[in-house]
Amino acid sequence: MFTTPLIAAPMAGGTTTTELALAAQDAGAFAFAAGGYKTADQLAAHIAPLRSAGIDFGVNLFVPRTAPLTSVQLIELSEYRTKLRTTAGLYGAAVPEELLAEDDPRVQDYWAQKIALLLADPVALVSFTFGLAPAEVVEQLHNVGTQVLASVTSVAEAVAAAKSGADALVVQHANAGGHSAAFLAATGTPPVAGAVEASGSGSSGNGSSGGRSSMKPATLPQLISEVRSEVLLPLVGAGGISTPEDVKAVLAAGAESAAIGTALIRTNESGARLLHKNALGDPSYTDTAITRAFTGKPARALINDFVRDYTDAAPHAYPDVHFATAPLRAAAAAQNNPRALNLWAGSGWKSARTGPAAAVIAGFLQFL
Ligand SMILES: Cc1cc2nc3c(=O)[nH]c(=O)nc-3n(C[C@H](O)[C@H](O)[C@H](O)COP(=O)(O)O)c2cc1C
């Protein structure tokens, strides 16, 4: 399925620019465009140069939630929004009064429009995260010659994804930076409770992870082998990969390719905020944690004041919490203050290098 064992993972929210995807391709990685948060027009513009380059690439989409918030979640969200107002005020920002309707295109992440775009003008691969694409969408994509990848975080999710018609799986370990792909709450690797779950030592991408239940695979290679023994589809390993040895271990465990995200955040072509890039190189950050504080969905980030102050209170309410915290995060960024920013980072963040993406990719590929 892939012509290279290294994949530049999709990173929505600005990090995966067209330039980063092109640079990754040029350097010998398989590139994924990041379709999350974008309108269909923005996605079309994002991938137009990749189409022109004539090399296969993938497009990643967020699967929207299938049910509105429950009354309990709505109460928790309301309480959280009240709490957020304290910090928002400190930054001169306001928590939006409006709660978006379930059928608002922003809540649905412009799903229908982006699927229509990808059916009208197909790409080689489409990957999904936050859930499984409905069977009819998988079939429609297959009919236009597109292969479908599902993102999973556990054996149970892998089995469900295989049944959904996916052609391959992205197997994401909880050490991954940014949002977890988990969609089966009872079996996904991120904690269901709100408490901060810190990473392990942070020095090794695939080291053991403090605070995690012994039921969950401690390393990405372990998770790959567990999935491998249950599912025959090609696998892509992701989460905490920071050295060529990590890639080799993932391949040896049965994956066809390994995906890197955090390792590319600080590169020249990455569109991450400078504050984010600099934070990854700042020794005053000592660990990462999984938190719902920024978006209402578990995501791994550097531990800053916002993570410390808001993780316990954050409800399961994605994307409502994302929209509630957005003005606050924008104000903090405008004030050059990383304390309330979502500094997404995988457990291998200390190894993320500055410079051209090509150099980072070459560093991984030269030992394979
Ligand atoms: C800044 C950032 C944004 C991300 N955005 C997405 C996304 O839009 N879609 C997705 O499937 N995964 C997303 N991820 C997860 C990555 O695709 C990948 O699974 C992860 O980065 C791998 O772990 P690593 O960061 O430790 O290398 C994101 C990760 C980061 C760090």
Task: Offer a few descriptive terms.
368 residues, alpha/beta, TIM Barrel, 13% strand, binds flavin mononucleotide
Low-confidence stretches: 187-195, 200-214
Which fold name fills CATH's third level, the topology? Answer: TIM Barrel
Question: What is the 3D form?
Answer: globular
In DSSP terms (H or I, runs of 4 or more residues), the helix count works out at 13
The largest sheet has its strands arranged as 1-2-3-4-5-6-9-10
How would you briefly describe this protein structure?
The protein has 368 residues and is α/β, with parallel strands linked by helices.
Please render the helix and strand layout as text:
Layout lengths: L5 E3 L9 H9 L3 E5 L5 H14 L4 E5 L8 H20 L20 H10 L4 E5 L5 H9 L3 E6 L2 H9 L4 E5 L5 E2 L17 E2 L21 H11 L4 E4 L5 H9 L4 E4 L1 H4 L8 H7 L7 E4 L7 E4 L2 H6 L9 H15 L22 H9 L3
Parallel strand pairs: 1-2, 1-10, 2-3, 3-4, 4-5, 5-6, 6-9, 9-10
Antiparallel strand pairs: 7-12, 8-11, 11-12
Helix pairs in contact: 2-4, 3-12
The chain binds flavin mononucleotide (FMN).
The site of flavin mononucleotide (FMN) has 31 residues, from strand 7, strand 10 and helix 9.
Can you offer a commentary on this structure?
The strands form 2 sheets. An 8-stranded parallel beta barrel has the order 1-2-3-4-5-6-9-10, surrounded by 7 helices. Strands 7-12-11-8 form a 4-stranded antiparallel β-sheet, with no helix packed on it. About 7% of the residues have low confidence. α2 runs parallel beside α4 and α3 packs parallel to α12. It has one domain: Aldolase class I (TIM Barrel), CATH 3.20.20.70. The two termini are 18 Å apart. It is 36% helix and 13% strand. The protein has 368 residues and is an alpha/beta fold. The protein is globular and about 50 Å long. The structure holds flavin mononucleotide (FMN).
